[in-house]
Amino acid sequence: MTTKKTAKKTAAAAPRTTHVAPKKSATQVKRINLALQGGGSHGAFAWGIIDAMLADGRLEVEGISGTSAGSVNAVLVAYGYLLNGPEGAREMLEKFWRTLSEQRAGFNSPESFKVFKMMTGTMSPYQWNPYNWNPFRATIEKVVDFERLRQDKGGVKLFLAATNVETGKARIFTNEEITPDVVMASSCLPFLFQAVEIEGQFYWDGGYMGNPVLYPLFYHTDSRDVVILHINPIYRPGVPRTAPEIENRLNELTFNSALIKEFRAIAFVGKMLEDGWLKPEFAAKVKNVLIHSIRADKALKDLGVASKFSTDWRFLTDLCERGRKESTEWLDAHFKDLGKQSSVDLRAEFL
């Protein structure tokens, strides 16, 4: 007989991915692009969103733009698709996040995070992390065959962003360029890790220039639908008053600013098309993009910046479940919009 204590332990150790019968039919499948924000361990929230999308069975992923943890998830989805289609992508996502947790790579207590903050506030990673140890790198190298991924010519199109330290420009890396260094460059927070050198250039986290960058999906994919998976809440009620609250809100604003600017540009182009401001010969060359987003404003409102460093399995699977819930609700409300209209009013929200 299993005791309550044993049962609880077994449940916590068991995989949380549920394998459900797809809802798709031959006429229902819609092709979309995904845009994945970064946010450390909060990337497990996006894991849950993507898992529910793939389990639903009515969506096919054409391209993914990713930044930071979003780049990690993007690579996992593309590699999983290569191995075994949507089910392979689901399996690869869970394998990565579980492996990361098993390595206990994060800072899983408030005390350890405080010590970490003291170190990064007084020393650079060239001092306190001279060997440039990065837990994400060790984990993703363990689960992804990057050489095989680069050789895949017909799979999910990847666009991973990193920020050039010297020029301040975003660089977008595509499938044939992607290596562990590229993923680490895209997720290189400068107070945590040393700048990543690629072809003689040095890179930091892509989130400073775009979190995520959307424009590659407009120019290099056929699908008009871009579904943005937010990790950093855009709207947070109330004024932060404690130092941690202020730091957390500044972090959210910083890593949303480039995306909001891109939203404004998309809205402006959409208005030009709708109001006939462009001559027909020019309008025909402009892609009328449909924007959708799954927001983190409510789902992650109780979490601060410290939790982005936690790799506790219970925490990661809780984030995953939150993501699944948001994804399921979004599909129920907006699947009908895909291919027809944006489900986000960019002008109302951001202009």
How would you characterize this protein structure?
This protein has 351 residues and is an alpha/beta fold. Strand 1, helix 2 and strand 2 form a beta-alpha-beta unit. Helix 2 packs across helix 3 and helix 2 packs across helix 12. It has a single domain, classed as Cytosolic phospholipase A2 catalytic domain. Strands 1, 2, 3, 4, 5, 6, 7 and 8 form an 8-stranded mixed β-sheet that branches.
Describe this structure in a few short sentences.
Keywords: Hydrolase, Lipid degradation, Lipid metabolism. With 351 residues, the protein is an alpha/beta fold.
- Secondary-structure element series: HEHEHHHHHEEHEEHEHHEHH
**For the CA atoms, what is the radius of gyration?**
20 Å
Number of helices: 13
Distance between the termini: 62 Å
The CATH topology is: Cytosolic phospholipase A2 catalytic domain
User: Which outline best applies?
Assistant: globular
- Given the helix and strand composition, which structural class is it? alpha/beta
CATH level-1 class = Alpha Beta
Mean pLDDT: 86
* Total beta strands: 8
Low-confidence stretches: 1-14
The number of domains:
1
What percentage of amino acids are in beta strands?
Answer: 5-15%
CATH architecture: 3-Layer(aba) Sandwich
Q: Which bin fits the share of residues in helices?
A: 40-55%
Main sheet characteristics: 8 strands, mixed
Q: Keywords, please?
A:
hydrolase, PNPLA domain-containing protein, Cytosolic phospholipase A2 catalytic domain, NTE, 13 helices, 8 strands, alpha/beta, 351 residues, PNPLA_dom, eight-stranded mixed sheet, hydrolase activity
